[in-house]
Amino acid sequence: MTLRLLSPILAVAKKAKERKKEPWPPSTNQLTLGYASPAFSRRSKRSEAFFDLDRKNAEWDSINLRLASPKVWQDQKTSQSLQQKKKRLEKDILFFRQILGQKEELEVLEELAAEGESVAAEIEAGIGRLDKNLQEAEFRALFYDEDDPRNAILTIHPGAGGTESQDWSQMLLRMYLRYAERKGFKVEILDQQPGEEAGLKNATVRIEGDYAFGNLSQETGVHRLVRISPFDAAKRRHTSFSAVFVYPEVDDDIEVGINPDDLKIDTYRSGGKGGQHVNTTDSAVRITHIPTGIVVQCQSERSQHKNKASAMKVLKSRLYELEQRNKRVKIDALEDTKSDIAWGNQIRSYVLHPYRMIKDLRTRVETGDTDKVLDGDLDEFIKATLILRKNSAPAAK
User: Fold this and answer.
1) How would you list the strands of the sheet with 263-268, edge to edge?
2) Every domain of the chain and the residues it spans
């Protein structure tokens, strides 16, 4: 089926793009569904993969068939994984049907307009709603990797710059927390080590939501900040660096083999302002994976067992992502990029002085509204990097 059912709108939109626009509202014989939005044709082309309703329905039927088997329910991991996939498919199918319903509504309104009814305002509003959904479908079509629908594990590490970079890491943490809030994602701070004077030494955050990893996957890299230092009495300009790493959370449906002999597990007393139970027992857990040198820790829970379970989940996610990167034959291994969080490795530059500008060095997308971005409005940057990712992966197009 793909985009076949939307072809009337898309064909009209293409014609509307080729002819000279006239002021709204147009005369009855000029009134077309694509009149106010010639971008439909472009958006629909990018959204074609998402609109493959036949494939989604077939996959949904297949999952239902498997869930009907009593044997599947005997395996909790398999049944949970299938239910999650079914839920995602249902959302996509309902979204597509919503678009078809909006299309049919516009067709009825067009017929009324042809009969002389005054429905120009309704048509304009309907086109706006449909256009917005097509933009959303275009964005969803950028997710093609099998890990994109997963939850995300995000870590932040300060680099060159001392206290300045630690404060910058705190700003980045706030930015991603605000982004998650805007997207309706659920956030859990698994570990947060405060800096000696200000900011933080590192942070690990779990972000739960549909396509959380897909949205944040391209944020991995070094982020550079230029500003007048609030810690410098001479008010000089400083450059700070922090590294962000994003990993897909490994669900129970993925087996990640970890030899217990390869793990070094330490417990310690959680940091924080005293008085709470969490600070009076050795509840925090640090796990070192000896073969790779990966270190993860968690202190968010009062229970040592819960912290250990959370730390193991982070470790599995990082090992899984490392293996995936090796399979994709990345030029730089994940751990190699961590060695130099400084000049020459940044993916995005945030300049607050002498001018205000945020620029992504991969996509060249830039904006002067720095406050908006630092408050979590990352959609423009994330969409541009996802388009770059898709265009750089011929097999995934």
Assistant:
1) 263-268, 284-289, 294-298
2) 4-140, 152-396
First to last CA, the chain: 18
Residue 155: pLDDT band with limits 50, 70, 90: very high
Rounded distance, CA 362 to CA 381, Å? 10
**Burial code of 186-225, b = ≥16 C-beta within 10 A, e = fewer?**
ebeebbbebbeeebbebbbbbbebbbbbbbbbbbbbbbbb
Q: How many whole angstroms separate alpha carbon 319 and alpha carbon 312?
A: 10
Percent of the chain with pLDDT over 70: 77
DSSP class of residue 141 equals: T
Q: Both tokens of residue 172?
A: 């980045």
* Sequence-separated (6 or more) residues with CB below 8 Å from residue 85: 59, 63
Backbone region of residue 356 per phi and psi (left: phi > 0; alpha: psi in -120 to 50; beta: other values) = beta
CA 240 centroid distance within chain: 24
**Which of the given ranges, 49-58, 139-148, 202-211, 335-344, has the highest pLDDT on average?**
202-211
Q: Looking at domain 4-140, does it have CATH number 3.40.190.10?
A: no
Question: What letter would DSSP give residue 355?
Answer: S
Which pLDDT tens digit goes with each residue over 202-221?
A: 999 999 998 999 999 999 99
Residue 26: what pLDDT? 34
152-396 has which CATH code?
A: 3.30.70.1660
What is the C-alpha to C-alpha distance for residues 222 and 202, in angstroms, rounded to an integer? 14
Element (DSSP H or E) covering residue 17: helix 7-18
> Is there a contact between 86 and 63 (Cβ–Cβ < 8 Å)?
yes
Three-state DSSP at 110 gives helix
Q: What pLDDT is recorded for position 334?
A: 44
CB atoms within 10 A of CB 245: 19
How far is Cα 273 from Cα 194, in angstroms, rounded to an integer? 11
In three-state secondary structure terms, 190 is strand
Determine how β-strand 357-360 pairs with β-strand 346-351. Answer: antiparallel
270: tokens are 């959680």
Would you say 152 and 207 are in contact if contact means Cβ atoms under 8 Å apart? Answer: yes
Strand partners, 220: none
**Tokens standing for 282?**
């050795």
More confident residue, 324 or 63: 63
| Residue 174: closest CA among 133, 216, 203 | 203
